[in-house]
Structures are given as C-alpha cells and as structure tokens.
Amino acid sequence: MSFPSVILSAKPRVIQLAMLLIVATIFVACSDDSGSSAKDDESLSSSSIVELSSSSSATCEEIRTTKNDFVPLENVLPCVNENEKVAFVIRHGERNYNESGYDDTLNANGVIDTRALGSKLKDYPDFYYMHTNVFRTLETGYRIAEGKGQSVEKFTRENCDSIVHEFNEDLVSDWYYKDESYLSKCASDAAAALTKMAYEPDDYYCSLAFYNAKERTQELVERNFIYSKMHDITFAVTHDFFVAPLLISVTDGEIGLDYHNHSGDGYFWPNFLSGVAFIVDDMDRVTMVPVKGLASGRLAEY
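^ that's the sequence the OP posted. Answer follows.
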C-alpha cells in the first residue's frame, strides 16, 4: 500500500447519479458495483469541469489532491473510480456541549444536519456503517440512512439493525494515545496536545504521550481500509479527538487545525461531520481527502 495518497488515471465512477452540464458535450456516466441499475460509462478528461453541487464546482483531480481545505463530502463520491471503494471517517453529528457521555444523543441540530447529509446522497446504494461504543456515533449512521431514504425502524441502541453496522474499537477517541501520563507536559490540555503532537511530531513529551500521527494513521488504514476488507461505501463515525490528528496527518499539516497555538479558539477544531475520505483502489493504493458534511470543516463556535 502506498502512503500517503496517489492519484489514479482511471475514469471516475458515479453511482446512480446523472448530471447535466452547461456544455452539452460533457457527461458523467453512472455505474454501481453491486449490479443494481447502471448507465453507460464515458471517460472524463482531467481538464473538464464537473458540476458536483450547486455551491461548488471542481475537477475530480482538484478534489483528489486537496490538502489545505475541506471538500464537501457529497462531491467526493462522483470522483471514486470504478476500481475503488471509499470510507468516510468523520466526527459524529452535533451534540450539546455538556452531554458527552456514552449514552448521550445528538441534539436537534445534529439530527437535522445528519439527515440533511444523507439526503444529498440518496441516489447511492445503502452504506455500511462503523461506529464506536458511544451512542451518538451509531445514531449518526442511523440518521444518515434515515435522511437518505433508507427504510429504517424507530431508533434505539437495541433496535438499530435496520442499518448494516459494526462497532469498531479502532475508532475510539484514544486511538492516538500512547501514555496519557505525559499529556500535561505535551501541552496545556488534551485538545491542544492532540494537535501539537500531529504538527510537531518531534516534540519530546508529545512523542511520549502519543503515537506518531502519520504512522498511527497508516496502521488504521492497514487494519481497516484494505480493498478486500471494504464495502463499496462506508461511513466510519468517530470523535473529535480522533479526527483532529487524523486530518492533520493525512494533509501533511496543511489543514488549519493548530489548536495548540490558539487555545480556547474553537475555530481551530474539527467541526461535526468533518473528517477524511479514504479512497482505496484494487491495488490498495490510497487517496486521502479532507471532507466536511456541513458548511465549514472547522468548528467556528460551539
């Protein structure tokens, strides 16, 4: 597996989605690995502009090479090639500030936003969901499915099997932690330490407190996002303490999440529904794209 990302030249796959462009000669064809309805494929030149959403237009090459900004999540799927699968590793939907326990749920905004994200993806086949043992991560997957129009039952922790899902222990908040006893020497608080260690991997105390962020991210990919292990489209829902170093490591520090230099300023923290798209081809080559499910990938205010 190559790490970090590589850009492939294969033609893009667009699952069950037809887009008309202003220039009538440009057309993106749709296909579906599952064998459900598909349209004839046509190649798309790298210089063509694909209208991916009403608010943002870019080429797939631009999207797949983005490092210093967040790509709207719904714009990534049309750029997944026929020989690739994709996993979106994202923070859960919005919760109330003081409700961060295992059994706490999304708040009203979180339900609305997460359903809205699902509604943008309604033309794709049903997704596979991974989550932590925290209730709101499972609920995020359920609400995406609900907004997508998937047939789902009334949601509870015990009654959630109308979506295909699994608890994945690698997604828990402490994935990047090595020895928490050194946290206070790495930075003033845990949030600041998480970004400092990702931006400054050679810091002595941070290196004792945390695994190297890039190496740990590579391990995550090797354990979970090998082509043969993956479903066509996966949503892996996790937490902010996981997403912050993940984003920094896959963008080579170009993404603006240096919270340790801006203590208390939430603008430098991952927003809800932001994270990373891992696009993996059948040779296990990985393209990694920072993504956002809301208008901003950074948390402007809590």
